[in-house]
TrEMBL record:
InterPro entries, per the entry: CysZ/EI24
Source species taxonomy: Bacteria, Pseudomonadati, Pseudomonadota, Alphaproteobacteria, Sphingomonadales
Lipid bilayer topology: Multi-pass membrane protein
Name of protein: CysZ-like protein
Major place of residence: membrane
UniProt keyword annotations, A-Z: Membrane, Transmembrane, Transmembrane helix
Compartment list: Membrane
Membrane spanning residue stretches: 20-43, 63-92, 135-158, 194-219
Record's keyword annotation contains ATP-binding: no
Superkingdom classification of source: Bacteria
Name of a matching Pfam family: EI24
Amino acid sequence: MPRALALSIAQLGDRAILRVLAKSAALTLAIFAALGAALWWALDAAIEEWIVATLPADYSDGIAGVVALVLGLLAAWFLFRVVALAVIQLFADEIVQAVEARHYPQAAISARTLPLREDIANGARGAVRAIAFNLVALPFALVLLVTGIGTALLFWFVNALLLGRELTEMVALRHASSRTAGASSVGGLTRFCLGGVVAALLAIPFVNLLAPVIGAASATHLFHGRPRHAPV
C-alpha cells in the first residue's frame, strides 16, 4: 500500500495524468456547481416559505438564508465523493493506461479499452451505490452525532469499504470480462486501506480534487503489483 501511494503521487506530474486531473477536476466542479445551485434554490424556496409564515418579517429572510447555507454545505459534503467517483470512472482508462505504460508495459498490451457507453454505465452504477451506502448509514450517523466523532468515523468506514472495492474493480474490469473477475487479486484488507486513504483525502479541501486520481493510480499498482494467486 505505501509503495502504491508513493508511486501514484510521484506520477502526478506526468503529462497524461495532468490531463486527466484537469479534465476530472473541471467536470467534477462543474457538476458540483450545478447541483449546488439547484439544491440551494430548492432549499431556500422550501425553507423561506415556512420561516416567513412563522417568524417576523425582519428576520425570516436572513434565517432562511443561513439554514439553506448550512443544509447546502452538508449536502455538498455528502455529494462530493459521489460526483468524484462517477467522474473518475469516465477517465479511468486514461489513468490506468498511463500507469501501466510507465510501470507495467506487458499488462498495457493485453488491457482492453472500454467504450464510452460502458464507462458512463459504470460511473452511474458507482454513483448509485455510493448514494445507497451513505443513505443506509445516515440514520446511524444521526444517532452518533452525540459522540462528536462517531458520525465522521462511520461515514469514513462506509466509504472506505465502498471506494476500495470500486477502485480495484475499476482496474480489474480492463483486464477481465466481468466487473469482479480479477479484483480478488487485491485482498479485502488492502482494498479497505486503499479506500480509507482515499476517503480521508476526499475530506480535505483542494486535496479532494487529487484524491480520485491518486486512488485510481494506486489501485492499478495494487492490482498489478501482487501475485494473482495469493490475495492478502
